[in-house]
Write a structure and sequence with these properties.
Its cofactor is Fe cation. It catalyses: 2 a ubiquinol + O2 = 2 a ubiquinone + 2 H2O. The chain has eleven helices and no strands. It has helices at about 1-15, 30-50, 65-70, 80-85, 145-165, 170-195, 205-220, 230-255, 255-280, 290-295, 305-330. It is globular and about 50 Å long.
Length: about 350
């Protein structure tokens, strides 16, 4: 009898402990019955736990609520659980992801009532570009750092001209993968500086991250019209890795130099997009319809073309040129960026 009590005690620890060993002492006539019930409970508990813990190599397709509901009601069919959790509609069509954490997708619509299909940006993050900006501004390299930045950009452009030549669609793709790096690196470093110095950034963190996001949207737009080859993707990966680390180190050493490099890089971007427009006007590049993502992001009118997209992208690059040369001038005067309000939304 003591042996039975000890064995049941061990089983109770392994499964769901519904009663203690002490409750079994003195029970002789029902020992076998209790033992069988305990084993059944252990098997049922093990089955529930093994179902809830999905294998590591399986995608998590159910929400937390669906898993909990299935564990509580293991005998109900999958369709019933999904229907009560809000995962399926008529005909088993997926409605949305229901989460135990209270997060649910928000349905966003356009001004005309149609559904907004972009998750990477929302209607209130779109804008109309200003193509009337002066494209001919140039920051004359006077100091040693200015000249170093200027010739660094010229050295970067030389192999690009050889590799891409007049394939401006792929050139734009490469350019944007590099141009989206400085804003993220600068914003990240200013963010860390603001944290360890317990001070504000004057809005420059947001301005630089806004620049990085804008450049990334340029890439997303050109990816729709330019299909890079595998070796071009490999080149992007290599160039981005080198440029990220080089720019990170350069910004740590001299923010003035780093912003000046970006300013000259944007001047070269303006030149490249101007040549892109000439190729479109000459008929060497087909003026295809503008991608849907570009029409929504820049609020372009229906029926816009690739030429319209290049126009607004070039205007964005001109605005980034001004912002980075402005930041470089602030450092040139021996000040920090936060003393001047950041030009948030300047593009």
């Amino acid at each position: 009898m003591m042996m039975i009590g000890r064995n049941c005690g061990r089983l109770a620890v392994a499964g769901q402990r519904l009663f203690t060993t002490a409750a079994l002492r003195g029970v002789s006539s029902r020992a076998a019955q209790l033992n069988s019930q305990l084993l059944a409970g252990l098997v049922r508990s093990t089955m529930t736990v093994s179902w809830a813990r999905a294998p590591a190599n399986r995608l998590r397709n159910e929400s937390t609520l669906a898993l909990v509901d299935r564990a509580n009601h293991p005998h109900r069919p999958d369709e019933k659980v999904a229907e009560e959790a809000g995962l399926a509609g008529a005909g088993g069509e997926e409605k949305g992801i229901v989460s135990y954490w209270g997060i649910s997708p928000v349905k966003v619509t356009k001004e005309d009532g149609t559904e907004w299909k972009w998750n990477s940006f929302r209607p209130w993050e779109t804008y109309k570009a200003d193509p009337s900006i002066d494209l001919k501004k140039h920051h004359a390299p006077l100091t040693f750092l200015d000249k170093l930045a200027y010739w660094t950009v010229k050295a970067i452009r030389y192999p690009t001209d050889i590799f891409f030549q007049r394939r401006y669609g792929c050139r734009a793709m490469m350019l944007e993968t590099v141009a989206a790096v400085p804003g993220m690196v600068g914003g990240m470093l200013l963010h860390c500086k603001s944290l360890h110095r317990f001070g504000h950034s004057g809005g420059w963190i947001k301005a630089l991250l806004e620049e990085a996001e804008n450049e990334r949207m340029h890439l997303m737009s050109f990816m729709e019209v330019s299909k890079p080859r595998w070796y071009e993707r490999a080149l992007v990966f290599a160039v981005q890795g080198v440029f990220f680390n080089a720019y990170f180190l350069g910004y740590m050493i001299s923010p003035k130099f780093a912003h000046c490099v970006v300013g000259y890089l944007e001047e070269e971007a303006i030149h490249s997009y101007t040549e892109f427009l000439k190729e479109i006007d000459n008929g060497n590049i087909e003026n295809v319809p503008a991608p849907a993502i570009a029409i929504d992001y820049w609020r372009l009118p229906p029926g816009s073309t690739l030429r319209d997209v290049v126009m607004v992208v070039r205007a964005d690059e001109a605005h980034h040129r001004d912002v980075n040369h402005f930041a470089s001038d602030i450092h040139y005067q021996g000040r920090v960026l936060k003393v001047a309000p950041a030009p948030i939304g300047y593009h």
